[in-house]
Every structure is written in structure tokens, then in C-alpha cells.
Amino acid sequence: MRTLLEAGHRPIGIDIKKSGFTDEVGSITDRGFVKQCMRGVHAVLHTATLHKPHIVTHTRQDFVDTNITGTLNLLEEATAAGVGAFVFTSTTSVFGRALTPAPEAPAAWITEDVLPVPKNIYGVTKLAAENLCELFHRIRGLSCLILRTSRFFPDPDDRKETRENYADDNVKINEFLYRRADITDVVDVHLLALQKVHTIGFGRFIVSATTPFTRDDLQELRTNTAAVVSRHVPRYKEAYACHGWSMFPDIDRVYVNERARNELGWTPQYDFAHVIDLVYAKKDWRSPLARTIGYKGYHAHAFAEGPYPVE
Predict the structure, then answer these.
(1) From CA 74, how far away is CA 86, in angstroms rounded?
(2) Short-list 148, 194, 270, CA closest to 3
(3) To which H or E segment does residue 202 belong?
(4) What is each CA distance from 2 to 7, 20, 21, 291, 293, in whole angstroms?
(5) What is this structure's pTM?
(6) What does the pLDDT profile of the chain (311 residues) look like in tens digits?
């Protein structure tokens, strides 16, 4: 919303809570509300969701209502209103169990061709929503692109062991190697998707920082990640030493953004090497947009253990 407004567009922001960037307060589960909001709209950026942090605090029916029925409402009303472009923010969580190889196996090389195997209600409902988008492209001719985003939120890691053993900045910078993106790059790819959606028609794209790894690195990533990273970005050791940080011993998957770069013309700026350069120069590694947005959280209250309860 910030970026669209700054670029001179007239977006209509809808949310369940009031904010400086919310024009209409309501839920996508309300078909009448969605219909009202679709008047005069040329394109839809569908980012509304119940997320992994909500799995314990919300019912499975809540997930179905928001992620599946809400998406259906948007698709139905968009096509009824003659909207020509639809971009859906999905998640790499749809891959589920496909992300976790056997202990002795190489790290998983995750492209759009990997078959999703969702492992929780979040992944199940996001994949179902993706399939609804594909259905509406086929039966209604709606131009629709799906962006499977990796982590870009600022919340602390949900695993207690990780929080206890690594500083929060350390965790997030490590993740730029294989499963994180900066929100500036995530915004950029959404705007590029709007530009390319009519030309492409339909497609799914992984959105994550460009990894320095290749397929040849996958076996060693499971046993000696630091050695692999040193070959690709040797400067990281010095930057990490200044902060007392360390590399994860094991990386089990690598998200590959090649299709998004080639077909959407996306050039993400914030990869591991760039972030290391910022750390080395004693600068904030987050983009200006990430710093402006700050931390929002997923719940109205804090929890005693971690940023949110987990299964």
C-alpha cells in the first residue's frame, strides 16, 4: 500500500483492522463486503490470510473460511466485476513435507516443479486457494499469478531452540541463504506480477532471496554448511565474528527463484552477499521499507513462550 500510493496509484486497502492504509474495514469471508470493494477495480492483490502463527489460536474451520472461501469470494466477485488481473500471495509452506529430506539425503532443491505435500491446515488451505485461482483462469479466463513467498516477516523464530542458540539477526541473515526475502523485494515482485500477468496468463513463482548455492552443494549443506557458505561468500566469517554469530550446521532445503527472475524480470537486491556487505559496513541490514513498517505481530496479545504458540 505504501509503495503503490507513493507511485501515484489509487489502491483500495481492505483489512479487518483500521490503519492508515486501510480504506475499507471488513473481512474477505463476507461476500457482500467483497462485492462492494470490487467496484471500479482493475487488479487485485490478494494478500489476506490466516497464517502459520494462527494454527493454534484459530480453528481449522477459520482457516477454511478465510483462506479458501475468502479466496473464492474474491475470485467470484473479481470476475463478475470484470477485473482483469489477480495476483495471489501464497507461501512456500505449501511444499510441506517435501521440504524435509531424510537425515542422510542431500538438501532439497525446491523449484516450482516440486510436488507440494502440505503438513498443516495452513499449507492445505493455501494450496487449495492456489487451485481455485488456476480454476478461475481456466473457466473464466482470469489472468492470475501465484507468488509463493518465503519468510519476510520480522517475528522471532518460532522454535525455542533456535531462539536460545542464535541472536535474532543471526537467524534471519542465515536464512537469506535459502528461505528468506526482504519485504522490499517481495513488494517489487508483486508489482512486476501485475505488469506481466496478462502476458503470462497463469503461473506459480517462488519468491525468495537468490541463493548462492548450486545443486552441487546440496549434500555438503547437510553436514558442513559453513564450509559451503565460505566458498561462496568468504567475507561472511569476518562479519559474523564481529557479532559473535554462527552459521547453522545443517540446511535442509534451498528455495530457487530462477523462474521469477527469468519470467517476471525480478532482480531482488537483498541476498546473503548484499546483507553481509551491509553488516560488514556496520549498517542496518534491513531495507528502509522493512524498517519503516517495523514489527506488527500476528496476535493482539503476547505469549509467555515465543512469538506465538506452536503445535
Answers:
(1) 9
(2) 194
(3) strand 202-207
(4) 9, 10, 7, 13, 9
(5) 0.97
(6) 999 999 999 999 999 999 999 999 999 999 999 999 999 999 999 999 999 999 999 999 999 999 999 999 999 999 999 999 999 999 999 999 999 999 999 999 999 999 999 999 999 999 999 999 999 999 999 999 999 999 999 999 999 999 999 999 999 999 999 999 999 999 999 999 999 999 999 999 999 999 999 999 999 999 999 999 999 999 999 999 999 999 999 999 999 999 999 999 999 999 999 999 999 999 999 999 999 999 888 888 888 888 888 87
Spatial distance between the Cα atoms of 96 and 124, rounded to a whole number of angstroms: 9
Let me know if residue 186 belongs to a domain: yes
The CATH number of whichever domain residue 265 belongs to comes to: 3.40.50.720
DSSP per residue, 8-69: T-----EESS--TT-SEE--TT-HHHHHHHTTT-SEEEE-----GGGTTTS-HHHHIIIIII
Four-point Cα dihedral 295, 19, 152, 163, nearest 10: 30
Parent domain of 44: 2-289
β-strand pairing of 43-46 with 85-91: parallel
Cell numbers for 55: 494454527
34: which residues sit within 8 A by CB, 6+ positions away? 28, 73, 74, 77
| Residue owning grid cell 559473535 | 244
Q: Is 70 contained in some domain?
A: yes
Residue with cell 569476518: 238
